[in-house]
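Hi team,

As requested, here is the filled-out complex form for the iron/sulfur cluster run. I kept the field names the same as last time so the parser does not choke. Let me know if anything looks off before we queue the next batch.

— J.
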Amino acid sequence: MDLSTALHIDRGQCRALGQVAIRLPLRRERLMPPLPAAAGEETEALHWIIATAICQQTRTLDGVIGGKRLRGSDYLLAALRQHLADHPGRWTPGALLAWTEEELRSAVSDGGDPATSTLDRLEERLRLLRGVARHLLDAHRGSAMALWRDSDRTVADLLARLAPMEAFADPVAKKSHLLLSFLHERGLWPLVDPQNLETAIDYHVMRVALRLGLVEVKTPELRRLLVDQVPVSGEVDSALRLAVRRACREVVGTTPGLTPFRLDHLLWMVGRNCCFYEHPPVCTTPGRCWKMNICSLLESIPHDCGLSCPLSCVCRGAADEGHRTLRETAFDTHYY
Ligand code: SF4
Ligand code: SF4
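And here is what came back:
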């Protein structure tokens, strides 16, 4: 398949999305709840690196933490924060190297009981976690903050310093850009060139970008792979995600005030709520969304959605079934 002709970025559609995105609010504190002050910046930076490193394929995660039902990566982050608060001594690179599958399951469970954990891909996640700990010990004196201090604080240099770790080896750098965005926004790793951050492209963002029509699929062959969820190669997955990343850069670049972080959050939230993979997009029943009680979008993007997708006014998929039936790539990976 000639991937160079199979994908086309619709710049007009990118500009149109930017005009909608910039009007939607963002509640930052919902995205990045701080750790207890006693944790200190070293532990907090380590927490973000580890949480991002093992945050892939989180579909199995669903439970109640702190009295609140959470799922997916929200659950992972809250569970790890809870574990850190309960066992601060286990959050050093040296201690992380000794974590077992049982400790990882305990760290990602409702109340610390490993038997109740729904975390999967344990061997893979443990390998990624230990890889981070090993690299910090070998290359950065066992310090998450030293990785940033050793850099020139540019996006490019920090990406290069993260890349030797398997967890951050993605050619599209989804986890790396997300991590740098989090740490920059939290003021832990301030960047001198945050304008060079990119939107972090995962399966939710991919699906929504395709349905919006930011990236048009030009060949029946690629369309069939996406609609029928036929497993694709890493080359196809990367090409599609890079095209979506370029489209997101176009959205941000043509919309004053919009950042990749903000756009990423909007597309991701729409993807895990209104436009989730497990059910038809909510625009098929405008004004009658049934997910109000489990919707996580409205917590961080507070507005009156009117029980309709906030992007339906600009989305090609809202009116066209051909766009609406597109899906993300079927690709088994730890990159996202
Ligand atoms: S309640 Fe609104 S924002 Fe949430 S999924 Fe439904 S339509 Fe989307
Ligand atoms: S309008 Fe429909 S297809 Fe488009 S992003 Fe929203 S839910 Fe998905």
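Two things worth flagging: Residues 208, 211-212, 270, 274-275, 281-283, 309, 311-312, 315, 317-318, 324 surround iron/sulfur cluster (ligand 2) (CB under 6 Å). The chain has two domains: 3-27+199-324, 33-185.

Thanks,
J.
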